């Protein structure tokens, strides 16, 4: 979410920040009051403060760290990332590198506040964030549970609103990884139900994230995902589905239809929706919006020319769409406006006009997890004449 420059200059310059180099030519970070425990397939930890004092060129070191935290490249992207396998490997490695930085409690709090500042500066007035709700750790190695993490998100959001009263707020979509075992996802769904009871106005729902082509299907997790209905609990789902180009006929290719059968509130990416006319018709009739992430789809090699993006046809068919940014800092882009620009010029072509942008912006409210009354309040605050 946050510009990588902020992470390098802010987080990695804090005291007690250690770094190691992995066998996969990436890095890992951890904050510790004393030397951290060794990590498998990672070189011995080195205190960054000491490393910077010894190195002859701090700028090169910082640039090297920055390169491990983003997919942005000064080289030809087609040469740097010749296939989806290569770009996804780099994508996941960058998340691994980020993890120890952003889950350190002081950085976690500052990182989220900086994210709100950057999204606000980009004219985002309401945010729904997918989050793994990690066990945030302290300098002494102790860690907090997921309820603490969600409470921190909520408290920080309220704090931000107190100084930015025109910012409408944020909600969290609790996520787990689609590579996890069924028992792990079942435990996550149960935890999501508990957290929703304690945070009814802040926890929006649940999703599974990760590379869809290589992950387990929604059908594999059907018993876990059926738990809320079996217990009479309404837990909204916001499933990633159809973020694939070459899975036609595979089990993964059924995720779109299964997402709809599981009553998903929105479809994350939905890039393959055009290949599924029944699912497409069903989602259009139910007004289940597709969260389109133009830059992400382009960088992760789902589409090269955005004029050929399936969303262009979906727009012409009046299928509900919302524009999202996925992981903007990872791509070196703005929080949201760059994605809106690419959607504007790429999907609508010469027929795009200010009304197209207005419709997409209104869709962000219409298909949000806000209650109907709050959606009306947001529209009224944003446009007194609406």
Automatic annotation (TrEMBL):
InterPro entries (UniProt xref): A_deaminase_dom, ADGF, Ado/ade_deaminase, Metal_Hydrolase
GO cellular component, one term: extracellular space
Protein name as it appears in the record: adenosine deaminase
Biological processes, Gene Ontology terms: adenosine catabolic process; inosine biosynthetic process
Start and end residues of each Adenosine deaminase domain: 83-376
Main location: secreted
Compartments reported by the entry: Secreted
Source organism: Poecilia reticulata
């Amino acid at each position: 979410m946050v510009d990588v420059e902020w992470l390098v200059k802010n987080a990695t310059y804090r005291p007690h920040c250690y770094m190691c180099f992995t066998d996969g030519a990436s890095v890992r970070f951890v904050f510790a009051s004393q030397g951290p425990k060794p990590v498998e397939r990672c070189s011995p930890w080195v205190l960054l403060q000491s490393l910077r004092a010894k190195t002859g060129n701090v700028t090169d070191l910082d640039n090297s760290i920055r390169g491990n935290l983003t997919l942005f490249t000064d080289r030809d992207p087609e040469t740097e990332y010749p296939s989806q396998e290569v770009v996804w490997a780099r994508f996941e490695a960058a998340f691994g590198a980020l993890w120890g930085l952003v889950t350190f409690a002081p950085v976690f709090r500052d990182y989220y506040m900086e994210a709100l500042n950057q999204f606000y500066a980009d004219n985002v007035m309401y945010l729904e964030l997918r989050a793994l709700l990690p066990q945030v750790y302290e300098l002494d190695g102790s860690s907090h549970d997921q309820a603490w993490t969600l409470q921190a998100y909520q408290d920080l959001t309220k704090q931000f609103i107190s100084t930015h009263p025109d910012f409408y707020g944020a909600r969290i979509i609790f996520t787990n990884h689609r590579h996890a075992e069924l028992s792990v996802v079942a435990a996550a769904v149960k935890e999501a139900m508990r957290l929703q009871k304690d945070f009814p106005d802040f926890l929006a729902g649940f999703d599974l994230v990760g590379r869809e082509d290589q992950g387990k299907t929604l059908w594999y997790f059907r018993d876990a995902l059926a738990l809320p209905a079996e217990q009479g609990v309404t837990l909204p789902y916001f499933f990633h589905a159809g973020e694939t180009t070459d899975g036609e006929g595979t089990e993964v290719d059924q995720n779109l239809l299964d997402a709809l059968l599981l009553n998903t509130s929105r479809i994350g990416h939905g890039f393959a929706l055009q290949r599924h006319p029944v699912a497409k018709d069903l989602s259009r009739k139910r007004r289940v919006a597709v969260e389109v992430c133009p830059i992400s789809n382009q960088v992760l090699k789902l589409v090269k020319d955005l004029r050929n993006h399936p969303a262009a046809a979906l727009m012409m068919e009046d299928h509900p769409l919302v524009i999202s940014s996925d992981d903007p800092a990872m791509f070196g882009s703005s929080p949201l406006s760059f994605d809106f620009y690419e959607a504007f010029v790429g999907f609508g072509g010469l027929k795009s006009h200010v009304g197209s942008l207005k419709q997409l912006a209104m869709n962000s409210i219409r298909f949000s997890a806000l209650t109907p009354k709050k959606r009306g309040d947001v529209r009224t605050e944003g446009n007194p004449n609406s």
